[in-house]
Amino acid sequence: MEHKQHTAFPKDFLWGSASAAYQIEGAWDADGKGPSVWDNFVKIPGTTYEGTNGDVAVDHYHRYKEDVKLMADAGLKAYRFSIAWSRIFPTGKGEVNEAGLKFYDDLIDELLKYDIEPLVTLYHWDIPQALMDEYGGWESRQVVEDFTNYSVALFKRYGDRVKYWVSLNEQNIFVSLGYSMALHPPKVTDDKRMYQVNHIANLANASVINAFHEIVKDGKIGPSFAYTPFYPVDTDPKNVLAAENAEDLNGYFWMDIYAWGVYPKTVWRYLEENDLAPTIEPGDMELLASAKPDFMGLNYYQSATAAHNPLDGVGQSNTFNTTGKKGTAEETGIPGLYKKVKNPYVKTTDWDWTIDPDGLHIALRRINSRYQLPILITENGLGAFDKLEDGEVHDAYRIDYLSSHVSAIQAAIDDGVDMLGYCTWSFTDLLSWLNGYQKRYGFVYVDRDISDDAPMTRIPKDSFYWYKKVIETNGKEL
């Protein structure tokens, strides 16, 4: 829609930034922490860029006060971070690790000292290795109980100070990359297992949301979903239908469960026909329907374009562009449903991700219209090869990217979308899961490369000062 004048960002809009424990904390075995699946996975040769890992990461565990002070200097209203499950329960369950709880106590209190709202993510992909060894992690229904008990411990410890919580971060990514594409732990290529894992994760998400509402009465919780809106490549009805197939399979299959507790019938039919449907046990659907998220968390990085793909057409590619060499991404699709094609109207990053702020506007409109839930953007950002020159980083390209996406949020607010906040990815540079330290997202440059023996000096980039002005003016100056 086009409007004669803008609607102002809400006065309490959460201008923030985000991170994940494994990608920033380091201290992988400090103070009683147990290993997560990622601590072991990254040691497998060939799994990450030049063998990079999060043993030290950007040493946030020891430098959190310095990082929070920089957040305060930038004027952040909110900071989203995840808690490492195995830092709290080293074996995933049983005896709690008080030292782990204290670290997050201290981090939360430091944020509140500067009036920065803590947004806590319960799970950002780092399930304790002990649970994987004991019963296969997310492949066992036992994980629902263990994840709920872990989450309840956090609600009781931090619920008096933390209002906003994210249950699962990008469930669609950790189940597909872990169990279909073998790019994440446990390095499996089995779609049948993937959909069963996904169903169990849905049960865990619902269980935790219900527990939260019993314990933290004045708080808000929701899942964080990596949504990529699809367009048809043209107006050919076959291509329009392909885009609908892609939306159902890649978007609504997850968000419908989060909001309503039901699987889309079209996707379920596809799963049954291909012997991929998960096992549904008595009480499952009732549990899923009972959980009511307070918001939909959205991680938005790119849009995608779909075209018709016959039954003998293009199959799924199990590779990503992890080199940063533009144009090396492989064609991918699902026969009989859709294939991804290039969109000539949008530019791409060096990693072949589309740069499409209008896609964010469209995503916000679709989610708002379908689910009637407030939306919290939990991630949005640009990964790039930043260069430190004479002690400075001039990242005008990141400012352009973020500015255009904030403008898209403004347009969505003008259209009546209920927005809670916007968390960029990320505040400091951090470890990219598969791309190491070459792919940088932060407002703050961290002076390190593949070697852990680095100064880790924090250097605000030009984008740091740009975002500070955006926050000061509540989105009026971009």
UniProtKB/TrEMBL annotation:
What's an example GO cellular component term for this entry? cytosol
For this protein, the record's PROSITE patterns field holds: GLYCOSYL_HYDROL_F1_1, GLYCOSYL_HYDROL_F1_2
Q: Gene3D superfamilies, from UniProt?
A: Glycosidases
* One matching Pfam family: Glyco_hydro_1
One biological process GO term for this chain? carbohydrate catabolic process
Which keywords label this protein?
A: Glycosidase, Hydrolase
Molecular function terms from GO: beta-glucosidase activity
Q: Where is the active site?
A: E379 (nucleophile)
By sequence similarity, the record places it as follows: Belongs to the glycosyl hydrolase 1 family.
Protein name per UniProt: Glycosyl hydrolase
Q: Species lineage, top-down?
A: Bacteria, Bacillati, Bacillota, Bacilli, Bacillales
